[in-house]
């Protein structure tokens, strides 16, 4: 049975307000802590930090200080130290700015609560890229046995949003990387995901700057053409066709094998110089 909904979708601001209002009792009031006693949480969903944004934040902190305290919990690995629940970006920027201490709010939180709050805070601030967000949801499902309904309730999202986010992680690695880099949106990725050679189509979407609607049309066209080409080719056995499909999936490009009498040819079709360079890099390895 899933645990009761805890309403973490309110976000970190509500939690900090509660902490400041509580005042009395350990672990609630804002305090200063030495920066070296604060450590990141390896389960934190966010892993990518924009360098320019971090530089601007460090300059702001150098001038005005850390305006919002960092939410921490007692460190599970280092007694007497703290582990970040939310605010790693501010903590990193404070180090760059040369600060020796930062304001914190200390709360007693278990692993599940810490992860949920970290996801909520980052999602509400749109700090996570789609892959990081999906990775956070996957951790809640895999590590803590939460259902998609539980996750949706905890982070204040719809169940369909969570389900669609999780599907992104099952896409071919090149598409996942494009999502992580912000070169491809989730809508674009879903538009080409079920078509033949989705990686090739994703590259076309990026290079041509297609809208989601145009990407959907491209995916439908590829599916129709793939359906026609999926008919058995005269003279091609099932093993050859299976090998073509396997290579096409690995490369994200159209592959044709012509084999007869122990010899033949392998044809790889590319749609851009970038795709050709990618194939060349793979071959050089």
How would you describe this protein?
The protein has 285 residues and is an alpha/beta fold. It folds into three domains: 120 residues, Conserved hypothetical protein from pyrococcus furiosus pfu- 392566-001, ParB domain (Alpha-Beta Complex); 56 residues, no CATH class; 50 residues, no CATH class. 53% of the residues lie in helices and 13% in strands. Strands 1-5-3-4-2 form a five-stranded mixed beta sheet, sandwiched between helices. Strands 6-7 form a two-stranded antiparallel sheet. The N terminus is likely disordered.
Structure, briefly:
This protein has 285 residues and is an alpha/beta fold.
CATH architecture of the largest domain: Alpha-Beta Complex
Do you know the CATH topology of the largest domain? Answer: Conserved hypothetical protein from pyrococcus furiosus pfu- 392566-001, ParB domain
Secondary structure tally, helices:
13
Total number of strands: 7
Biggest pleated sheet: 5 strands, mixed
Amount of beta strand: 5-15%
| Unreliable spans | 1-12, 18-27
The level of helicity is: 40-55%
How does the helix and strand content classify structurally?
A: alpha/beta
């Amino acid at each position: 049975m899933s645990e009761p909904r805890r309403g973490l979708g309110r976000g970190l601001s509500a939690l900090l307000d509660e902490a400041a209002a509580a005042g009395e009792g350990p672990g609630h009031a804002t305090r200063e802590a030495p920066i070296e006693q604060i450590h990141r949480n390896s389960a934190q969903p966010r892993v990518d930090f924009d360098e320019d944004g971090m530089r601007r934040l460090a300059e702001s902190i150098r001038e005005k200080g850390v305006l919002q305290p960092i939410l921490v919990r007692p460190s599970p690995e280092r007694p007497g130290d703290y582990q970040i629940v939310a605010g790693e970006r501010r903590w990193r920027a404070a180090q760059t700015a040369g600060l020796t201490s930062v304001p914190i709010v200390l709360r007693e939180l278990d692993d599940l609560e810490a992860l949920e709050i970290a996801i909520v805070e980052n999602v509400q601030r749109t700090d996570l890229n789609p892959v990081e967000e999906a990775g956070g949801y996957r951790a809640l499902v895999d590590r803590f046995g939460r259902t998609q309904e539980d996750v949706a309730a905890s982070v204040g999202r719809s169940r369909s949003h969570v389900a669609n986010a999780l599907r992104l992680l099952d896409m071919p690695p090149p598409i996942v990387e494009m999502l992580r880099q912000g070169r491809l949106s989730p809508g674009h990725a879903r538009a080409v995901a079920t078509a033949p050679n989705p990686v090739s189509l994703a590259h076309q979407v990026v290079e041509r700057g297609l809208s989601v609607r145009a990407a959907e049309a491209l995916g439908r066209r590829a599916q129709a053409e793939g359906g026609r080409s999926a008919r058995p080719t005269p003279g091609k056995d099932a093993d050859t066709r299976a090998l073509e499909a396997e290579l096409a999936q690995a490369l994200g490009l159209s592959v044709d094998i012509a084999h007869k009498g122990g010899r033949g040819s392998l044809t790889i079709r590319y749609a851009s110089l970038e795709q050709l360079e990618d194939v060349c890099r793979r071959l050089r390895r």
